[in-house]
Write a structure and sequence with these properties.
This protein has three domains: about 90 residues, Ubiquitin-like (UB roll); about 240 residues, Ribonuclease Z/Hydroxyacylglutathione hydrolase-like (Metallo-beta-lactamase, Chain A, 4-Layer Sandwich), CATH 3.60.15; about 90 residues, Arc Repressor Mutant, subunit A (Orthogonal Bundle), CATH 1.10.10. It is built from 13 helices and 18 strands.
């Protein structure tokens, strides 16, 4: 029999499309549908069901408009021609917030999926504000201009831009908007020098940056490929004038007050913006928390001395914040930020075990560990892969479980215990939480 499945929000983003039609045997259930859609890859089922096979509490599944929660849950039977809809129970949007907020989705083929430009201050007498702006390309600019036009505003109306961090897919269009409107642009004091152009990082003319690549064991051919990619990206970027802020700064937009929350790791100055929602505090999280992929640490900002340690502190801060919902820099809203932070901690705990497994075969450089973890790399991932490997090797070294030699990193003990290197946040998880990883 033929079943059509419609996917929304983070579920759509994880699966990669918003609708699919599949053939199932007679008598199949919702659980059978999830298994068939995954095809053994576990992209969808772990997000929708707990380890016990129950539909997660924050996920809504409907069959022809009827919620399966009122029937047999995942065991609800399907008939030929049924339409199954799967979506997070809180999908986001202005109707679920105490102020007006819209999202303009911007194209991004290189990173974690579409960028989000959050548009705030749409009420009369409020201050029209953008949180992040997207890549400095003609295509992304056209996306943003069209999205704002659909909301009845344009670049010239923007009064303030809040940037979560310095990366071009977030800060890239700030200068163009500022040139048109005269708006103020704000960023955390640590990332501001990279946004306003007063300092450079990942600069291919900077000997310190090239020394970092050498220390990771990156082959010269890959350094050349990376250099060409970074130079092309830098050529498109124009720096805005930036006003700095620190952790705890507050921005009153007239419709809502935002509080800056420093969330270092992915970059040294990454900052989220917290606010009061209907049911508690919520967070514009930038790339500190993403719904499907895990943010890169180590390669995304080589200024961060102990990148994994810094990022684990950030994840713990997000857990301690008790946020009801997070609005990430890419893809859909995260309806359980604490649970997602716990998932990412588990992800890094498991990745460290894999790094230990690589070192068990002998000394290895970050580039060699990266090859074992990620395989062949291209474009920005040439930087991100060994950077992530370095972050884990550095974490092991700081704990005395590894050491750096001329041949690379090697273990100081044959079977190191690594679980203690990661925070335990189980006592702060929501009831019913089941790990995804």
């Amino acid at each position: 029999m033929k079943i059509t499945c419609e996917l929304h929000g983070t579920i759509r983003d994880a699966f990669g499309t918003d609708a699919v039609t599949t053939e199932l045997r007679e008598g199949a259930t919702v659980a059978d549908l999830l298994t068939a859609l995954d095809g053994g890859e576990e992209r969808l089922d772990p997000l929708v069901r707990t380890a016990d096979g129950e539909i997660r509490s924050h996920i809504a599944v409907h069959v022809d408009g009827e919620p399966v929660a009122a029937c047999d849950g995942a065991d609800t039977g399907l008939d030929d021609g049924d339409k199954v809809t799967i979506l997070p129970s809180v999908a986001g949007g202005s109707a679920t917030l105490p102020f007006e907020m819209e999202i303009v989705r911007l194209g991004n083929a290189a990173f974690e999926g579409h960028n989000n430009c959050y548009v705030l201050g749409l009420e009369p007498d409020a201050e029209l504000t953008l949180v992040d702006t997207g890549f400095p390309t003609d295509e992304t600019r056209a996306d943003l201009e069209e999205g704002l036009t659909d909301l009845g505003v344009e670049f010239a109306d923007v009064e303030r831009i809040l940037l979560t961090h310095w990366h071009g897919d977030h800060a890239g269009l700030a200068a163009a908007i500022q040139e048109t409107s005269g708006c103020t642009v704000h960023a955390h004091e640590t990332d501001t020098p990279l946004i306003d152009g007063s300092e450079a990082t990942q600069d291919t003319d900077d000997p310190a940056f090239l020394d970092t690549l050498d220390s990771w064991g990156m082959p010269s051919a890959k350094q050349t490929e990376l250099t060409e990619f970074l130079d092309a990206a830098a050529a498109e970027y124009a720096p805005p004038t930036v006003e700095t802020f620190a952790d705890g700064a507050r921005f009153d937009l007239g419709s809502v007050e935002l509080e800056a929350v420093h969330l270092a790791g992915h970059t040294a100055g990454l900052c989220g913006f917290a606010f009061d929602g209907h049911d508690g505090r919520e967070l514009f999280a930038g790339d500190a928390l993403l719904p499907y992929y895990t943010p890169n640490v180590g390669g995304a900002d080589v200024r961060v001395t102990d990148p994994l340690d810094a990022y684990l502190d950030t994840l713990t801060r997000i857990v301690d914040g008790g946020y009801e919902r997070a609005w990430p820099g890419h893809r859909g809203a995260i309806v359980d930020p604490t649970g997602r932070a716990a998932d990412i901690i588990d992800h890094h705990r498991e990745r460290t075990r894999r790094v230990v497994g690589v070192l068990a075969d002998g000394p290895a450089t970050p580039w060699e560990v990266s090859a074992a973890l990620f395989g062949s790399l291209r474009a920005i991932h040439i930087l991100h892969g060994p950077g992530e490997a370095f972050a884990h090797l550095n974490h092991l070294t700081a704990a005395g479980l590894a050491t750096q030699t001329d041949a690379g990193y090697e273990l100081t003990t044959p079977e190191p215990e690594t679980d203690a290197l990661f925070p335990d946040v189980r006592d702060r998880l929501r009831s019913g939480y089941e790990p995804v990883h």
